[in-house]
Amino acid sequence: MQLMPRDIQRLQKAMAQVRDESFFRSFRNLLRARLSFDTFLILIFPKDGAPEPLETWIKDPVLAHNYPRLYTAGAYRLDPFFQYRNQIGDGGLYLLSEIAPDRFFAGEYYLQYYKQTKIIGEVGLLVPLSDGSVGHLSFSRREGRGTFKRKEVNCLKQASPILLELLRQHCEHRMALRSTQGPDNKSRPLEDLIRAHVAESQKPQLTRREAQMAGLILQGHSNLSAALSLGISRETAKVHRRNIYRKLQISSQTELFVLLADLF
């Protein structure tokens, strides 16, 4: 990406304010000079537990009121960026379409959650932090604006080393300031929450592997994709899916989502 004089000025301002409360606005202005978006959020994905929003900017006031609450209440558990946080290496910039499971866009989570937010295109930066957590910058476009164009994405990827370093420094600084919170129910693995929820419904208990498979189904994985994730054969994944549906007396991913909707 060729930097113009104004770009350099915005970059210098963001760098100077990386440990300051005004950094978020400067960082947003730095990116908004090159592309448009409707949401802009910085979060921390801890090693255990729910994401911690640091700063949010959401253009639509109704979405601004509902989106963070909806996400941290449980929707994050099926978020492809949250699920991908342990696979980022030194970090990078990713499109939702690049990291989402193979059946994600046909899944009930996408149809329900993204229908509410009206988000049609999302870009995320993920960077590892010193305590094992991950810093996440998310910006997205909603219906009517169109998805991010390849030219815009290429421009962002060229600038990603600088953007990731700014994000890392800011998140490290914010982590040093935050108070430590005790563990809560949100820190439990998804498969444990699924098993507990099924037990409360007085249905036959799922095995841990079946609960893991149920979580992958909800995230939008096909049998083949889930098998690769769990290190099992496709046929074994099919057996797990059949057992889940039989025990829960359901016949589709939609019914599974409805049954476990309280978790998200």
Automatic annotation (TrEMBL):
Xref: InterPro entries: Sig_transdc_resp-reg_C-effctor (IPR016032), Tscrpt_reg_LuxR_C (IPR000792), WH-like_DNA-bd_sf (IPR036388)
One protein family per Pfam:
GerE
Query: What does the UniProt keyword field contain?
Result: DNA-binding, Transcription, Transcription regulation
What is a single molecular function from GO for this protein?
DNA binding
Gene Ontology biological process terms from the UniProt entry:
regulation of DNA-templated transcription
- Tell me the ranges covered by the HTH luxR-type domain, including all copies: 199-264
SUPFAM superfamilies, per database record: C-terminal effector domain of the bipartite response regulators
Q: Does the keyword Transmembrane helix apply?
A: no
- Name under which the protein is recorded: LuxR family transcriptional regulator
Per the UniProt record, the source organism is: Sulfitobacter sediminilitoris
